[in-house]
Amino acid sequence: MTFLSNKKRLILALDVDTQKEVENLVDSLNGFVAMFKVGYRLFTKYGPSIIEFIQKRGGKVFYDAKFYDIPSVVERAAQRVAAMGVDMLTIHTLGGSEMMKAAVKGAKRENEKIKVIGVTLLTSLTSQIIKEELGIGKKVNEEVIHLANLAKKSGLDGVVSSPLEVEDLRKIMKKDFLLVVPGIRPFGEEKNEQKRVMGPREAIIKGADFLVIGRSILASSDPIIATKKILKEIGGEKK
Fold first, then answer.
1. What CATH number did the domain enclosing 229 receive?
2. I need a labelling partner for 121 at 20 to 30 A (CA). Which of 65, 66, 128, 188 fits?
C-alpha cells in the first residue's frame, strides 16, 4: 500500500450517537480521510441506513462488525455486508480459520473488491489479561503474530492490530497484506482505556497502512483543524 498518500491513510471512527453528527463529520472531512468507520454504536441505532447515508454523502465505509460466530452464520452475514457496498469489514480472527475462510467466501461472492480484515487482539488487552483472564499462554505480541499468520493463510486481506505489533507484522507480511491500526494518539494526548498506543507518524513508519482515529478528532472543537494537525504530524497534510 505504499502508493497511498498519507492523507488517505486515515480512517475516522464515527463514535457518535446521531445522524446529524455523522452528516457534519462526513461533509467536512470526506476530503481528508480514507473512509469512515461504523461500529456497534451507530449500527445498533440506525442499521444499514447509516451506511447508505454515508455513501450518499460520498464517503467510503469501514464496517467494524467484528463478526464472531459459527462459519455458516458468518458467511451469510459477510455476504449481506458486502451487498451493502462497504469497502472494508472486520471479523474476529479468534473465530478460527474455518470461520475466516467462510467470511471471505461470503463477502467476495457478493463483492470481490471488499477488504475482509481480521481483528487480532483488542488494544485494551495486555499480556497479563490474556494470560490470567483468557487463558492464552503467549505474550500479546506472539499471539497477534500467530493470529495474523492464520488470517493470511485463511485468505483475509489484512488484520487489525495495535501499533506496538505493526513493525513485527510488516517484517513478515507482504505489502499487499493490510495493517489497520487503532490505538493512535497524536503527540501529547492521553491513552485513555487503550493500553497499546503510539503516535501517528511512528505507526506509519513502522508499516501501518491505515490509522483508525476517533477521539482525537471527535473531541476537538474544530475537527478539520484536528485532522489537519494529524496529517501534518504524519507528513501528509492537505495542500
1. 3.20.20.70
2. 188
Rg of the chain over Cα atoms, rounded to whole angstroms, equals 17
Active site residue 153: no
Catalytic residue among 7, 20, 45, 66: 66
Could you read off the pLDDT of 159-172 as tens digits, one per residue?
999 889 999 999 99
Q: How many residues does the chain have?
A: 239
Which tens digits make up the pLDDT trace of 204-236? 999 999 999 999 999 999 999 999 989 888 874
Let me know if residue 137 belongs to a domain: yes
Full domain range(s) for residue 116: 6-234
Dihedral over Cα of 175, 162, 131, 133: its sign: negative
Angstrom CA distances, 188 to 192, 196, 200, 212, stand at 12, 15, 12, 18
User: What are the φ/ψ torsions at residue 213 (nearest 5 degrees)?
Assistant: -130, 135
